[in-house]
Amino acid sequence: MHRIIAIAILVLAAMFSSARSEVLIGVSAAMTGRLAWIGEQGQRGAEMAVADVNAAGGVLGQKVRLISVDDFCDPEQAVAAAQKLVADGVVLVVGHYCSGASIPASKVYEEAGVVEISPGSTNPQLTEQGRGNVFRTIGRDDAQGFIAGNYLADRWGNKKIAILHDNSTYGKGLADETRKQLNKRGVTEAVYDAYTPGKDDYSAEVAALQTAGVSALYVGGYHAEVALIARAAHGRGYMVQLISGDALATEEFALIAGSAAEGTLFTFPADPRRNAGAAAIVEQFRVENFEPAGYTLLSYCAVQVWAQAVAKAGSLEPKAVIATLHEQEFDTVIGRVDFDDKGDLTRQSWVWYVWRGGEYVPVE
Amino acid sequence: MQTSVAGLLRLTAMLERLGIRGRLLLAFFGISALAVLATAAALYAFLQVGDVVDRITTDRVPSALASLQLSRQAERVAAAAPSVLAATSRAQHSEVSAAVALEMSRLEALRTDLRDATLGTVPLAEIEEAAVVLRRNLKELDSLVVARLDVVARKEELLNRLAATTTGSHRLLATGILVMDSRLPQWRAVAADTSLSPDRRAAAMADLVQAIAAYIPQQKALLEISAVNDALVKAATAPTRGDLALILFPLRRSLAALETASSEIDEKLQTRFRQRVDEFKALTDGENSIPKAREEELAVLAQGEKLLAENNRLSRSLTAAVDRLVAAADREIAASGREAALVQRYGTGVVLGSAFLSLLSSVLVVWLYVDRSLLARLGAVSQGMLAIAGGDLRAPLPAAGSDEIGRMAEALSLFRDTAVEVEEKNLRDVAEARQRLVDAIESISEGFALYDREDWLVLSNSRYRELLYAGLEAELTPGTAFEEIIRRSAERGYIRDAEGRVDEWVAERLWRHRNPGEPWAQRRGDGRWIMISERRISAGGTVAVYSDITELKQREENLAEKSTALEALSSKLAKYLAPQVYSSIFTGRQDVRIASQRKKLTICFSDIAGFTETTDKMESEDLTQLLNHYLTEMSKIASDHGATIDKYVGDAILMFFGDPETRGVKEDALACVQMALAMQKRISELTEVWRDMGIETPLRCRIGIHTDYCTVGNFGSEDRMDYTIIGGAVNLASRLEQEAAPGAILISYETFAQVKDTIDCEEMGHVQVKGIAYPVATYRVIDLKANLAGASRAVRTELPHFRLELEPELMSADERGGAATALRDALDRLSHKPGQ
């Protein structure tokens, strides 16, 4: 009798361990709405990375399964999404992409002991909060704004400059960093203002800038609104130089702006598609009819870094993984990566891109 | 018959040989054997009951319990099985499945137990078969659930893909919508702006038409995507295969429409859009489509339902079989119970019967054997013993025998013989001792009698008889009462005291006899004196010893006669001595020898003034009578006041106080003065008497008193001594007496000092005494102060050239006036100094 019970318990244990032989990770991004294209980049990048990790035998011999949630780039929804992922038992979250979503969600992950690696949130505050579990595979807006500010001062210092932002954590943060640097350089913007995101038409705002005689417009905001502003300017025949940040690195910008996209400048980390090490992966995406632009490879990198850290730590324990992430260097699709104590990349490279013929290319 | 009688005799003889111990043991063994027999019977009965109960508890009950458990277990398995099918995740399934497996394995174990416990009389085969099939079914069910879970997982995956594809398609089309939205305000502005040229407005309109035309296919595509998505989601949960077939038709039509629309989408997005459409197609048809996955799931579910139904049926049949098993076990338990009750009843009967028999046999053994043959004889022996102990040595004793009681009787008779012998010897010893006592009593010179507690004569010697009752020989036998003896002797006049008062005397004598004290003397009728000494003895009774003391008594009487003569002589002698001197000499307080001592005494001297002149003319007889009368009266007063009369010198008396007895100097002096006053008073009273006798001149007495140290004692020769006082004080007292006026008392200052508080005195001036260097202050005694209280007082003064005697209370008014004039005249004369 006792022998039978013992056997039953053994069978039960074996079943449980087989049920646990799967590691869950999550990707949280805006899968629908105006930022859906960025979300798609994140998901495709993470999916490909998971497929590659599993093809190579998984982590510590366990398969990795990816689940994705839609945070709508909204702070409240981001917290709900984070709680769902934590409840599902993920050990890593790739995301979030909007800084306004990442920052509140990071608290949930810290409390649950979940590693968060954001491939898209650039607001410095994310890693300045002192949460040990947060990392990012993209640079910070203080660096991005520094470049933008310098450029504006150098190239447009003697003209009227306008700085607009959408009041989001990301948009206002980036606009302020840029303005700070610009002012530091002794140049004062002619206009500093906010616009309401989510509108279909920004003609009124553009008309005001035109009236003010603004020659260069720096926008801190997401690509759809920037594209609509570009369209509005173009429609009025107002030849203003449009300059923006990393959010413009999606082909949808050109699809919305149409011919108005031509010549729009923006900053983005050095394009990983050009890395030799990434070639095979880029090719794989293209075979699947997907251009791994923007955050795709940064997301791929996030999964890659984590998988390597788990392997190096030899454990899925969050503490061990986090410690390894802080201490070790990782070879990834975006090159060699290592993190400082805050979880930021030790090497950032912001590069100027310009939209030409429906795609963005580095400024020569 | 003869042999049986012989055998009985032999048996009796054998029992005789065994003795009491053996026979008692035999009796006890007999009783014990019967008790053991009863116990054994009871034990056997209980063992039988125990066997039956054991059979029930070890065979029937466990098998019944096991059956019940098996039945319950089967029900639990049947109840748990559906939950396996309801599992929605692998983890849940494995958990539930393990639980069911556990229940099943318990069922198996119970079945095995039951097979071992039951003896094949119940439908075990049926249970076995049902359990085996149940087990197989459960296994199948389990694998079925695994298959179902796989299908469900696949379906889930497909639905995720569907969602991703739908989202992706929407994403592609959303851009166009956004652009369209952003252009609408421009068109509205153009349409509203009437200031624009018609060409520009026409161009704007054309642009609008073109844009709308390009937009419509996107819109249619959006609708179809929604339709496809809805249909596929519905297919995923279609309840039957028929429903699935119904859904597939519109789905395929929507896909065809979508394909048509894709060619009209923006070229930049077309490739991607077509990709999405292909994905939709794959989800609808083909190996890995949603409808196919649902179809498989439905098949699995149907199979599961079938298996569950089968399970329920099996479980029911299993339960039914087990129920029959339990019923059988119940019946067996009931049967066993009845059997046990039967055995118990028999057992109880046997126990009660053997207990009764054992009791009966014990009673018989005790009554017939122990009581009759042992206790009766023991009783006889004990009665014999009690009789001997009570002193009856002639009581009948049981016959001796060969057993313990017989030997006891023999020993008892031996003991009695010895006791008889000892008793006789004791009687002899007592008689001898008594004779010795009689001899001893007989040999003493005093009479001896012993009376017992009731005052009966016990013993007396011949001396007693001859001393007290000579001639009464025959009546003084032992046993005669004391009262009778004394009464007889009183009546015969043997007792002097009893003459004429026999009864009274007898009572006195009896009281004395019963409360003996000091020895006493009894005067006998013949004049002899008998000393009787009686004493109570410790054992009660009285011993009396009688001695003849006649001679002693006679000597004593002679002595008494002489003593009386001497007393008469001494009383005559006493008249020549002061009473104090006499008594102190006769009581032996003071020796009659020459000795003296110095003491402070108060000395009194009295004398009749002019006695010689008064008595010269008298005849000698008259003088003697007068003087003796006077002296007797005075001496009486002196004796009454405690004075020691030293001597009479003619009519003078010398007395002193303070020896041989003294009350203290002050008291002595006071007593002396009081005595003197008494004497003067008595003389004034006697004056009347004497006048009657023919003495014309009244006798007046002078008294002098002095207190001082004197030598007092016996003075004289060895042949004749005088008790007297010597010293200057005597002379002073005599001198004071001579100085005193007739009828007055003169005292010295020393005496005055002692009595002045009580006695009223009058200072009389100083006198010169021969032999004393200084003049002595003298005082005349007036009276006791007490007598004078309130009485008249005379004023008396006497100086060499002045003399005053005044008694104002006795004077009349005229006399008082005259006296006052004389005194004033005298005062005037005294106030004028001489020569002036």
UniProtKB/TrEMBL annotation, chain A:
Keywords: Amino-acid transport, Signal, Transport. CDD domains: PBP1_ABC_LIVBP-like. One of its GO terms (biological process) is amino acid transport. Residues 23-351 form the Leucine-binding protein domain. Pfam families: Peripla_BP_6 (PF13458). PANTHER family: AMINO ACID BINDING PROTEIN (PTHR47151:SF2), LEU/ILE/VAL-BINDING ABC TRANSPORTER SUBUNIT (PTHR47151). Belongs to the leucine-binding protein family. This is Branched-chain amino acid ABC transporter substrate-binding protein. It comes from Mesorhizobium neociceri.
